[in-house]
Amino acid sequence: MKLEFWDGANWYSVATETFVNNKVFDINANTSGSLNINRLSGYPGSSALFLRGDGAWASPSSSSIDINTGTTGQLNISRLNGYPSNASVYLNGNGGWTDPLQLTVNSTGYNVNINNTNSAATFTGFAALSNGITTAQFGYNGSTGTSYIWSSNSLLFYTNSTAQMQLLSNGTLNLFSNNMQTTGNISAQTGTLIANNLAAYNSIAIVCANALTIQDTGTYKPYNGGYGYLNSSGSVGTASGQNPYSINCNNRVKASEFNAVSSIKTKNIEAYGEAIEQEALELFNKIPFFKYNYKDKIKNGAGVSFGIVAENLKDVLPDYVSEDDGFVPNIFQVCSIKAKNQDNYELVFKKKLGHLKGDKLQLTLSDRSIEVCVLEEQSKSLLIYCPQKLPNEGFAYGTFESCPSVTKNKLFELSMVVLKNALKRIEFLENKLAKV
Question: Residue 343: left (phi > 0), alpha (psi -120 to 50), or beta?
C-alpha cells in the first residue's frame, strides 16, 4: 500500500525522505482527533509545573497581579475581602469595614476644617438630616459673623451617658436636677426671675437691693390667696391656698423694725373707750400662761420663756390662732442612714419615736436640707423613699403636720387695752390712798 499526502498543489509520498525533510506537516489543518499531552516536547509529568506561553514548562509565578493595571473591567463589590453585606457599615481607608466617620488623629492642631470662601453665605458647617429633611445644623453664619447651633426641635446635652441639660424648642433651658453655678450675675432684664427656692451660699443672707414684695391677690378670710414662704434651710418660694400670711417663715425673722398697717382705713370700729376695757380684761384673765423652753433651740433660741400655747389660746380666742401645716421638731435626732433597695432607705435612731402624723419628713444633711416621704414607722426606725443618693448619717428634724400659730400682734393689742385699764385702776387706788 502506498501512502501519499496532498499539500493542496501536489501529491507526495509520505515514505519518501524528500517529503520528510523538506515539507512542513500542519498538524492543525491536516490532522484530526486529539493529541495526548504527554506527546508534547519536554513533557515533565509533574502536576507542580505549568506550560508557559513560550512553550517552556515552569513553576507558577508567586508574584501578585496588579488588579488596577493588570486587569480590565469592573470588580463586583461583593468580591471584596470581608464584604459584610451590611448597609450600616462603610469601607474605611485601611481596607476594613467600620461604622461611618470614625476619625483617629494624633495632632495638636485642628483635625477637621471646613472652609467656606463665600463670605455672603448664610451658613456653612455640618447638617443632620432625617429622611432628607434638615433637623440640625452646626456651623458659621457668614452674613452675621456668628457661630451657631440650630435645631428644628429641642437640643439635648449628654455627659457620662446621662441627660444633663435640655434646651426646649420654646427657648426654655431645663437643667433637670443639676445645679447652675456662676461667679457672675444672673439678671432678668425685661422678664421675671421666678424663684421657688433661693439659698444664701457665700453670705449669711439673701440681699435685695430694693424691697421684697409679694403680691397676695386672695381675700383674708377664708385666707385663699397666694403667699411666699421662707424655711429654716434658707429656701424661699410661693404657694397658694388657705394661709393667713403673705410671707410664711418657719424660722425667726430678724429686723430692726416691723411696721404694721393699722390705719382706720383698714378697720371697722365697733366700740372704744371704757366699753371695751372690761371685756378685754375678762378675756385676758381666761388665757392660761406657761413657762417653757423650745425643742429647737437653734431656730427659736435657748433659755426659759413665759407665754402662751396656741392650742390653749384657741379655746379662749379662736380668731387669734391659725391652723398651719409645716415641719415640726417631733423627732429631732441624729440618725444613721442605710440603703435598702432602689430609692428606699432606713433611718435608725437611738431613742424611741413618738407617733408621727405626717408622711413627709425634713431630713438635714451636711450640705442641704431635703424632704423625704415616710413609708413605714417602727419604734426606733423609719423606712423612707428618696430618689437622691443619701450619705450614711443625717439629722431628722420632724414631719410635716398641723402646727397652729398665734397672731401675736392681736394678742399684743389686747394686752395694751388690759394694761391701760390696769393703769387706770392703779391711778384710782393711788389717788384714794393719797386722800387717806
Answer: left
**CB proximity list for 260: less than 8 A, separation 6 or greater:** 409
pLDDT in tens, 7-45: 667 766 655 555 555 555 666 666 666 777 777 777 777
Taking the C-alpha atoms of residue 402 and residue 327, their distance in angstroms, rounded to an integer, is 8
The span from the first CA to the last CA of the chain, in angstroms, equals 197
Cα 394 to Cα 348: distance, rounded to the nearest angstrom: 10
| Residues in Cβ contact with 232 at an 8 Å cutoff, skipping those fewer than 6 apart | 250, 251, 299, 369
Cα 431 versus chain centre, distance: 77
Confidence of residue 64 (pLDDT cuts 50, 70, 90): low
**C-alpha grid cell, residue 173:** 433651658
pLDDT of 221 higher than 50: no
Ordered by start, the domain boundaries in the chain are 1-36, 325-403
Phi, psi at residue 79, to the nearest 5°? -85, -5
In a 13 Å sphere around the CA of 382, the CA atoms on its Cβ side amount to: 35
- As a whole number of angstroms, the longest Cα–Cα distance in the chain is 197
Bridge-based pairing state of the strands 247-249 and 224-230:
parallel
pLDDT per residue as tens digits for the range 259-275: 777 888 888 999 988 88
- The 10 Å CB-count burial string (b at 16+, else e) for 192-222 is eeeeeeeeeeeeeeeeeeeeeeeebebeeee
Four-point Cα dihedral 277, 282, 283, 286, nearest 10: 150
> CA-to-CA distance for 390 and 387, rounded, in angstroms?
9
pLDDT, tens digit, 9 for 90 and up, residues 172-212:
888 888 888 887 877 777 776 666 556 655 555 555 555 55
Which grid cell sits at 72? 480590565
Task: Let me know if 151 is exposed, middle or buried by CB neighbors in 10 A (0-12, 13-18, 19+).
Answer: middle
Backbone angles phi, psi at 423, to 5 degrees: -65, -40
SS3 366: coil
Architecture of domain 325-403: Beta Barrel (2.40)
Helix (H) or strand (E) holding 370: strand 369-377
CA angle, corner 9, sides to 7 and 12, nearest 5?
55
